[in-house]
Design goal:
- By secondary structure, this protein is of the alpha+beta class.
- The protein is 35% helix and 31% strand.
- The protein has 5 helices and 8 strands; from the N terminus they run βββααβαββααββ.
- The strands form 2 sheets. It has a 5-stranded mixed beta sheet, covered by helices on one side. A 3-stranded antiparallel beta sheet has the order 1-2-3, with helices on one face.
- A hairpin with a 2-residue loop joins β2 and β3.
- The N and C termini lie far apart (41 Å).
């Protein structure tokens, strides 16, 4: 039911939780998210972290939202996916004009799930629904694609400007 890791991330009933306050200044967003993956690694799941723009400036509100979204997504993988591999990608998106955003993409090779059923209806879980609400309230977007053949990919885009 509960397991401790060297990084003090605890998995209780599949929910990944830091036992210490998150220090984005010391760890960076990528480092804090990577630390959340410790229980997956302990299970033998291969976790790849890609952060090509490591060290980019992200405000605390956006950093917290990225971290909480990663926490929800990795917890769902821990609980349900039966994945053998997970890729976490965090990068800056620069488009025409002054639009700058940060994207978090979490993909797994697990069994997939019915996205519509998991995010709508009376018997759906609240985690993905609340995550979508928080992301859209911050002016961002969340896209989730899933199938038994390809696993799941969740992409969150938050504006930085």
């Amino acid at each position: 039911m509960k397991s401790l890791t060297s990084d003090d991330v605890v998995a209780v009933r599949g929910v990944l939780t830091d036992t210490h306050p998150v220090d984005f200044y010391a760890l960076g967003v990528a480092g804090a998210i990577d630390r959340l993956a410790s229980p997956l690694r302990e299970r033998g799941i291969t976790v790849h972290l890609e952060a090509p723009h490591h060290g980019m400036e992200v405000d605390r509100k956006s950093a917290t939202l990225l971290y909480r979204a990663a926490q929800e997504l990795l917890s769902n993988i821990h609980k349900y996916a039966e994945a053998s591999s997970v890729t976490i990608r965090l990068w800056c998106v620069c488009r025409s004009g002054d639009y700058h955003a940060i994207q978090l993409r979490v993909t797994d090779d697990g069994g997939g799930f019915d996205v519509e059923a998991a995010t709508h209806g009376r018997h759906s879980g609240m985690g993905l629904r609340l995550m979508r609400l928080a992301v859209t309230s911050a002016g961002g977007q969340l896209r989730i694609e899933s199938s038994p053949a390809t696993g799941t990919s969740a992409t969150m885009t938050l504006p930085l400007d």
